């Protein structure tokens, strides 16, 4: 059967326990089926399909349990991940401070190519806010990543966040593919392009 | 809920799903038209609504008509549960209602029970 999609991106949700990673992964609904067999065994990952600039993109999204803490998340865990959503809770200072530790863990364990994005979740709880939007923006600038405030509960900008991350991965991937098919030629005397690290997901990834 | 006396014939075209396969509860699109093959296999599935929630001994029913999917990335939207034995259970990606079917790890095939989903045109 012909492939029904153009790209497949593997994404991870990372952040402290209770910041709302699991809620971000599905349209928050008060009457979620939370007393059933499924919630007892737990969800491993979800597959979602989005359309981006005429391309059909499959997102395979893994939820992670925050109580595992950054110390125990290792290379195996990040294998194949192309994008990571770093989630904190705007009403919880500690979860914001820990983003630095999560980023350090990603830098130590994930592919250098991995596209990251910062999410300040629970943004509808303005009266309980402990982390200003400016601090979120500042941290994102520091790490050169994108930032968005979301609310899984009020369905604010959650889809935007996934679209933005997917669009950035797609752009990065298309740029690399273009460079690979048109190597720079002419009178340039530069020795060679820096070698791609063998651990890069891009090197394992083919255009589907 | 016995699934043998329901008229599924109208949903089949050339052995495949004629219309979109959707969640019964929230209408999330699980499969787009003509992406899965009809298959008769007997398989016991835990009920969506359990009277008692025990992981080891859930209430089940035997289900026998499935949409078979070879490549999991054929799904439009779906959730995969953690592994139980050789199986991962399938759920709605949006409301997490399930199991709507199962994924067989050794063969990598996925099966969606017709009796646990609705069929319709994409919104
Ligand atoms: N007010 C508000 N509450 C939220 C929001 N998102 C999640 N929550 C609540 O925050 C709590 C924790 O959410 P989860 O999604 O389970 O958090 P998690 O990050 O998956 O936590 P772990 O699985 O322990 O790592 C739940 O009670 C949610 O209802 C939001 O946007 N606003
Ligand atoms: Mg969770
Ligand atoms: Zn649903």
From TrEMBL, chain A:
<keyword id="KW-0636">Prenylation</keyword>
<feature type="compositionally biased region" description="Polar residues">
    <location>
        <begin position="197"/>
        <end position="208"/>
    </location>
</feature>
<protein>
    <recommendedName>
        <fullName>Ras-related protein Rab-8A</fullName>
    </recommendedName>
</protein>
<keyword id="KW-0449">Lipoprotein</keyword>
<dbReference type="InterPro" id="IPR001806">
    <property type="entry name" value="Small_GTPase"/>
</dbReference>
<keyword id="KW-0342">GTP-binding</keyword>
<dbReference type="InterPro" id="IPR050305">
    <property type="entry name" value="Small_GTPase_Rab"/>
</dbReference>
<dbReference type="GO" id="GO:0003924">
    <property type="term" value="F:GTPase activity"/>
</dbReference>
<feature type="region of interest" description="Disordered">
    <location>
        <begin position="176"/>
        <end position="208"/>
    </location>
</feature>
<dbReference type="Pfam" id="PF00071">
    <property type="entry name" value="Ras"/>
</dbReference>
<dbReference type="InterPro" id="IPR027417">
    <property type="entry name" value="P-loop_NTPase"/>
</dbReference>
<comment type="similarity">
    <text>Belongs to the small GTPase superfamily. Rab family.</text>
</comment>
<dbReference type="InterPro" id="IPR005225">
    <property type="entry name" value="Small_GTP-bd"/>
</dbReference>
<dbReference type="GO" id="GO:0012505">
    <property type="term" value="C:endomembrane system"/>
</dbReference>
<dbReference type="GO" id="GO:0005737">
    <property type="term" value="C:cytoplasm"/>
</dbReference>
<keyword id="KW-0472">Membrane</keyword>
<dbReference type="GO" id="GO:0005525">
    <property type="term" value="F:GTP binding"/>
</dbReference>
<keyword id="KW-0547">Nucleotide-binding</keyword>
Automatic annotation (TrEMBL), chain B:
<dbReference type="InterPro" id="IPR007515">
    <property type="entry name" value="Mss4"/>
</dbReference>
<dbReference type="GO" id="GO:0016020">
    <property type="term" value="C:membrane"/>
</dbReference>
<dbReference type="GO" id="GO:0015031">
    <property type="term" value="P:protein transport"/>
</dbReference>
<dbReference type="GO" id="GO:0007264">
    <property type="term" value="P:small GTPase-mediated signal transduction"/>
</dbReference>
<dbReference type="Pfam" id="PF04421">
    <property type="entry name" value="Mss4"/>
</dbReference>
<dbReference type="GO" id="GO:0006892">
    <property type="term" value="P:post-Golgi vesicle-mediated transport"/>
</dbReference>
<keyword id="KW-0344">Guanine-nucleotide releasing factor</keyword>
<keyword id="KW-0813">Transport</keyword>
<dbReference type="InterPro" id="IPR011323">
    <property type="entry name" value="Mss4/transl-control_tumour"/>
</dbReference>
<dbReference type="GO" id="GO:0005085">
    <property type="term" value="F:guanyl-nucleotide exchange factor activity"/>
</dbReference>
<keyword id="KW-0653">Protein transport</keyword>
<protein>
    <recommendedName>
        <fullName>Guanine nucleotide exchange factor MSS4 homolog</fullName>
    </recommendedName>
</protein>
<dbReference type="GO" id="GO:0008270">
    <property type="term" value="F:zinc ion binding"/>
</dbReference>
<dbReference type="InterPro" id="IPR011057">
    <property type="entry name" value="Mss4-like_sf"/>
</dbReference>
<dbReference type="GO" id="GO:0005829">
    <property type="term" value="C:cytosol"/>
</dbReference>
């Amino acid at each position: 059967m012909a492939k029904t999609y153009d790209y497949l991106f593997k994404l991870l949700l990372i952040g402290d326990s209770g910041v709302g990673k699991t809620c971000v992964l599905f349209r928050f609904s008060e009457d979620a089926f939370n007393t059933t067999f499924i919630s007892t065994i737990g969800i491993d990952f979800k597959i979602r399909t989005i359309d981006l600039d005429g391309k059909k993109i499959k997102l395979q999204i893994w939820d992670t349990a925050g109580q595992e803490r950054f110390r125990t998340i290792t290379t195996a865990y990040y294998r194949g991940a192309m994008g990571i959503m770093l989630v904190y809770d705007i009403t919880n200072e500690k979860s914001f401070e820990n983003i630095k530790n999560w980023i350090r863990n990603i830098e130590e364990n994930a592919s250098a190519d991995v596209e990251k994005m910062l999410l300040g979740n629970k943004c509808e709880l303005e009266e309980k806010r402990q982390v200003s939007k400016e601090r979120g923006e500042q941290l994102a600038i520091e790490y050169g990543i994108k930032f968005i405030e979301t609310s899984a509960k009020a369905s604010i900008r959650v889809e935007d966040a996934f679209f933005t991350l997917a669009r950035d991965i797609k752009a990065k991937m298309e740029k690399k593919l273009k460079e690979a098919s048109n190597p720079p030629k002419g009178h340039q005397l530069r020795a060679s392009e820096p070698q791609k690290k063998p651990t890069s997901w891009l090197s394992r990834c083919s255009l589907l | 809920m016995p699934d043998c006396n329901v008229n599924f014939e109208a949903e089949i075209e050339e052995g495949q799903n004629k219309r979109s396969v959707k969640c019964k509860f929230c209408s999330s699109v699980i499969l787009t038209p003509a992406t899965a093959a009809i298959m008769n296999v007997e398989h016991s599935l835990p009920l969506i609504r359990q009277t008692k929630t025990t992981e080891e001994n859930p209430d089940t029913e035997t289900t026998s008509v499935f949409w078979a999917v070879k490549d999991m990335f054929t799904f439009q939207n779906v959730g995969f549960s953690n592994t139980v034995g050789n199986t991962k259970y399938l759920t709605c990606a949006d409301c997490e209602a399930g199991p709507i079917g199962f994924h067989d790890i050794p063969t990598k095939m996925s099966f969606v029970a017709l009796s646990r989903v609705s069929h319709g045109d994409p919104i």
